[in-house]
Specification:
The protein has helices at 2-13, 94-110, 127-130, 137-183, 198-258, 277-301, 322-337, 384-392, 397-400, 522-548, and strands at residues 18-27, 31-40, 43-47, 59-62, 67-70, 77-82, 85-90, 348-353, 356-360, 364-365, 368-369, 373-380, 404-414, 417-424, 433-444, 455-462, 476-477, 479-490, 504-515. The chain has 555 residues and is an alpha+beta fold.
């Protein structure tokens, strides 16, 4: 029995995966969006697209307690709910919706979680059954009366059947007695034979059979009447459905027109926001996608770099922030050089793509997510100085920082140390963010090879500015500490030819701790970090590779 049980568990665990693109309702601003839905091992998961499956799902529902319901009038739509969490899903065609219906039903049965006919999508496949929960009370009562009359007629037929059976039994006994007398070759003793009133029995038999035929006629009439009632009922439901579809079409048209209207304050960021976490995240995600599209368009239309007017300079060593800058840079570099095991416990690998690995450790300060992040990546064809040069220089920041709305260099402490003020684009429903930080570029000695290429780093660290106080107006202040540590690796050609980009690679270590300020759901922030950090690192390194591919190496 144990072997059978383990075999059943194995079958459930190895269920065939069912996946495809469905429309998922995100929120009232962005409406229906394409999402890649996967059904496997009794769990329904969704991703933004198929190629993002490697980054983990955006959400998942267990079918163990899920309630699956078709829509009242949209044949292509169905909802999957677990308690208060509801996924509104829609297929492009009825056939695709039916395929999902069968897959969900099969998965629930195989997993042992079939919950009965109420949650079965198969029952609601036809146009009649789609409207089954909209029937009127009056119509239902008339059907009950028809059913009761039909049952009464069937009961009458049962009574007539009993009478006929008794008559047949009486005649059978008489005929049996006659046969017994003949077998003894003697005249039957009429005194011993049962007395049978053949005339009376014949009349009774005739009357009973006539009643049976009459009752069957009534049954046929009732069936015809009921069929006609069903037909009329179907016609009424078709008219009702047509009316509802017209109303729904008008509703969606009005909703589409109203999406550009600024939403009320109850939907924006704050502890009393009525937006659910998944709607909050979808809105932020759509805003980020829009920024990326704007960035791509800006790059296509761009004809020149945005000029940056250099502010006045001041001696670095005499600056009030220099002791802090020197101390923080050394601390950040030391932490960046440590392995994951040396940085404490609790680190989780949350993204991996080729040689890029990203780790995080969950931490919160006053209820706000401030998860430390550490990423390690190796990029071929670029040097550490080139990576840090493009990361530090304000001339290039608009090119690769897609969320940047406005940037200003408040002070140039030295050629390698600047103080920035940045305002980032608002992503509804979140509030707009700004940040003030100093940024320092430094060339470090290579601990592993004194004669080899040097190590470069850029450290960004939040600071204060009297001219730009925190949390003024509607903007929320970000507090950050970021360290980009880059080490160039060189594989010299064996034939003594000059070193080219084919011979170099750069090991990049990126560490950050960001407090976004304000208030936002922890699950939303972690989902955004999981989505954006890998994309940022790949986007930035691709930008550096593209900028340097036709230029001399910079060591």
């Amino acid at each position: 029995m144990a072997d059978d049980h383990s075999s059943e568990d194995s079958d459930v665990e190895n269920q065939t995966e069912f996946a495809g693109v469905l429309n998922k309702w995100t929120n009232y601003i962005h409406g229906w969006q394409d999402r890649y839905i996967v059904l496997k091992n009794g769990t329904l998961s969704y991703y933004k697209s198929e190629h993002e499956r490697g980054y983990g799902c955006r959400g998942a529902l267990s079918l163990a307690k899920a309630v699956i319901k078709p829509h009242d009038f949209d044949e292509c739509r169905f909802d999957v709910a677990v308690n208060d969490c509801v996924w509104y899903l829609r297929a492009d065609t009825v056939e695709i919706k039916q395929s999902w219906a069968e897959a969900l039903e099969s998965c629930k049965v195989e997993s042992g979680y079939a919950t009965g006919s109420e949650t079965s999508l198969k029952r609601h496949d036809s146009s009649v059954s789609l409207q089954s929960n909209n029937y009127s009370t009056a119509s239902g009562s008339s059907f009950k009366r028809g059913s009761r009359a039909l049952h009464e007629k069937l009961a009458e037929i049962g009574t007539y059947k009993d009478i006929l059976s008794q008559q047949i039994d009486t005649l059978q006994k008489y005929f049996d007695s006659c046969v017994d007398g003949d077998s003894k070759k003697e005249s039957p003793n009429k005194e011993n034979l049962p007395v049978v009133d053949f005339k009376g029995e014949a009349i009774t038999f005739k009357t009973t059979t006539a009643a049976v035929i009459d009752t069957l006629g009534h049954c046929a009439e009732l069936v015809v009447q009921r069929e006609e009632s069903w037909r009329k009922r179907l016609e009424r439901e078709k008219e009702r459905r047509k009316h509802i579809e017209i109303l729904a079409q008008k509703y969606f048209e009005q909703l589409q027109k109203s999406r550009n209207v600024h939403p009320g304050p109850d939907l924006e960021e704050g502890p009393h926001s009525v937006l659910a976490d998944d709607e909050f995240y979808d809105a932020v995600e759509s805003g980020l996608d829009k920024m990326e599209e704007e960035q791509e368009l800006r790059e296509k239309l761009k004809t020149g770099q945005i000029p940056v007017t250099p502010p006045p300079t001041s001696p670095a060593l005499q600056h009030r922030l220099w002791p802090e800058i020197d101390r923080v840079v050394m601390q950040q570099v030391t932490m960046a050089k440590m392995g994951i095991g040396e940085c404490g416990t609790g680190w989780q690998l949350f993204a991996e793509d080729g040689e890029m690995k990203m780790y995080r450790r969950e931490e919160e300060v006053d209820g706000m997510v401030v998860d430390p992040l550490k990423a390690v990546h190796v990029v071929r064809g670029i040097t550490g100085r080139e990576v840090c040069h493009y990361f530090f220089n304000p001339k290039y920041r608009y090119d690769w920082e897609t969320t940047l709305e406005h940037m200003k260099v408040l002070e140039t402490i030295s050629d390698d140390t600047l103080i920035f003020f940045q305002t980032h684009k608002r992503i509804w429903p979140a509030s707009q963010r700004d940040v003030v930080f100093w940024s320092h570029l430094r060339n470090l000695p290579n601990d592993q090879d004194r004669d080899g290429p040097d190590v470069w780093t850029v450290v960004n660290y939040s600071t204060e500015s009297p001219d730009h106080p925190a949390n003024v107006g509607k903007t929320v202040r970000i507090y950050l500490q970021v360290c980009l540590l880059c080490q160039t690796r060189v594989n010299p050609p064996k034939d003594g030819t000059p070193i080219t980009r084919d011979n170099v690679s750069c090991k990049i270590t990126y560490c950050s701790v960001v407090n976004p300020g304000g208030w936002a759901p922890a699950s939303v922030l972690r989902a955004v970090y999981k989505r954006e950090y890998p994309k940022f690192l790949k986007r930035f390194t691709a930008y550096v590779t593209n900028q340097t591919k036709n230029k001399p190496l910079m060591f």
